[in-house]
């Protein structure tokens, strides 16, 4: 009975000690075995492993590719046109021993702060280099610029035990004050283009109107000419008819022409003529009958 009371607690303690000496490393992790803060073992393969209970502890780090969004920064390319750049990086912990020695107990948070500083420095250096203008950054050449940033950052990040897999520029915009100036300039250019189009339209309209007016004048002139020709031909025909009539019966023709003259001269309600009584104009208005009371 007394032996059982001793064996059971000892067995229980042994189980606890045995379990505390075991740890499992997931396939997505890497582990360090620390003894009083010093690295004693590295476990990079997944599976079951052992450590000394109580004295040693296990620190695990993510072995997957991680993402880091950098702070928005301003860069000044060689053409002195400031740009606001927002980037992100993909990285992984390649050397857990160097990583632990570099960041200590700060872990991933401390590493990302330092990696962010490295990325910002490389972004400024690459985008601010000679021959790199804002147009280059905003063109298809930005792909090669991102590769340069990644390669430079990868070299600097090795001291942290990190491998920079990729760097991407998410947004590359003008600062707000520059955007306002750019929009104002674009608006002015569009207004100038609109004014040019309006001026060209007015010029074209003037040409169309001038052509139309010239066509109207030419048409009226041609119609007037044809009318004059027609009137001339009609007058000639009339004179020919009159001449034939005069030749056929001169006395009747003279009588007819006098009637036309009377009609023209005596138009209106208040026609007055001053002529001598013996004028030939009134020959056909005179009566051959003797005056009343005459001999």
TrEMBL record:
Entry superkingdom: Bacteria
Subcellular location: Membrane
GO cellular component: membrane
A single GO molecular function term of this UniProt record: peptidase activity
InterPro entries in UniProt: Band_7 (IPR001107), Band_7/SPFH_dom_sf (IPR036013), HflC (IPR010200)
The entry's keywords: Hydrolase, Membrane, Protease, Transmembrane, Transmembrane helix
One Pfam family this sequence matches: Band_7
TM region(s), chain numbering: 6-25
Bilayer topology annotation: Single-pass membrane protein
Domain Band stretches: 20-186
Keyword Calcium: no
UniProt record, GO biological process: proteolysis
Chain's role: HflC and HflK could regulate a protease.
Family label: Belongs to the band 7/mec-2 family. HflC subfamily.
Protein's UniProt name: Protein HflC
Species, as recorded: Donghicola mangrovi
């Amino acid at each position: 009975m007394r032996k059982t009371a001793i064996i059971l607690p000892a067995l229980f303690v042994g189980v606890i000690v045995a379990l505390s000496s075991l740890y499992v490393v997931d396939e997505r992790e890497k582990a360090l075995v620390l003894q009083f803060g010093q690295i004693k073992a590295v476990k990079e393969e997944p599976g079951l492993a052992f450590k000394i209970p109580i004295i040693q502890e296990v620190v695990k780090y993510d072995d997957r590719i991680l993402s880091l969004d950098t702070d928005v920064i301003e860069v000044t390319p060689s053409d002195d046109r400031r740009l606001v750049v927002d980037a992100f990086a993909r990285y992984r912990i390649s050397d857990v021993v160097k990583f632990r020695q570099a960041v200590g107990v700060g872990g991933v948070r401390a590493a990302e702060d330092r990696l962010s500083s490295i990325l910002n420095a490389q972004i400024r250096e690459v985008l601010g280099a000679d021959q790199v203008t804002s147009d280059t950054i905003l063109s298809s050449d930005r792909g090669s610029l991102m590769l340069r940033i990644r390669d430079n950052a990868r070299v600097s990040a090795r001291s942290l035990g990190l491998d920079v897999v990729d760097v991407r520029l998410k947004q590359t915009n003008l600062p707000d004050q520059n955007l306002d100036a750019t929009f104002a300039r674009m608006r002015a250019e569009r207004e100038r283009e609109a004014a040019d189009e309006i001026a060209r339209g007015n010029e074209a309209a003037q040409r169309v109107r001038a052509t139309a007016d010239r066509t109207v004048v030419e048409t009226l002139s041609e119609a007037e000419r044809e009318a004059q020709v027609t009137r001339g031909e009609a007058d000639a025909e009339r004179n020919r008819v009159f001449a034939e009539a005069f030749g056929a019966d001169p006395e009747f023709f003279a009588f007819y022409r006098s009637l036309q003259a009377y009609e023209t001269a005596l138009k209106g309600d208040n026609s007055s003529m001053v002529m001598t009584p013996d004028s030939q104009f009134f020959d056909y208005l005179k009566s051959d009958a003797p005056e009343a009371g005459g001999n």
